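Tutorial sheet, problem 5. The two components below are modelled jointly, 224 residues in total.
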Amino acid sequence: RKEVEQDPGPFNVPEGATVAFNCTYSNSASQSFFWYRQDCRKEPKLLMSVYSSGNEDGRFTAQLNRASQYISLLIRDSKLSDSATYLCVVNPFNFGNEKLTFGTGTRLTIIP
Amino acid sequence: NAGVTQTPKFRILKIGQSMTLQCAQDMNHNYMYWYRQDPGMGLKLIYYSVGAGITDKGEVPNGYNVSRSTTEDFPLRLELAAPSQTSVYFCASTPRRGETQYFGPGTRLLVL
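Model answer (structure tokens):
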């Protein structure tokens, strides 16, 4: 099983719709979780961290389900500018393991 | 703050040539990382550093070398370039282990 697994998509969604992505992780001891956004031919940028209680930032909501080992990202009232690849990122937090683990990304296209 | 800067933006190398990809950050971050990203794939960690003078291998270190003589700079050296090293290279930094990483704009490398 991959450490971090995402549905690659593509998701083609009409403008104004709601879309949700899931991401599963294999290490139950993982401590911190993030969603990054990557535009075409650009660097990844942090979209939001994911907290145990769930968190919201405007139209974006992130949830963590530790029992089932997945995190989700919900985008409401989608805009054309939301078109991007969304990367699920997990910190396994093993002692001596200094790295984050990146999923391969879910590609989202918002259709006018 | 310039954040994380990378040079060059784009480079074409012939097989067997060598080059150094430059990365610098002005945020006084201890942790720095080099990733490569192949089309449709996730980010793969090449090398990382937890502070000046300390470096360690990531998932895909073969064919690369790094050094970290200062907190600000973390150059990546390619010796004897091969077509398999054609990729986009991202440098990233973070102030603390497991936290949000800040990425540079990337270097696109083509080895012919």
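Marking note: Chain A has a mean pLDDT of 90. Full credit if you identified this.
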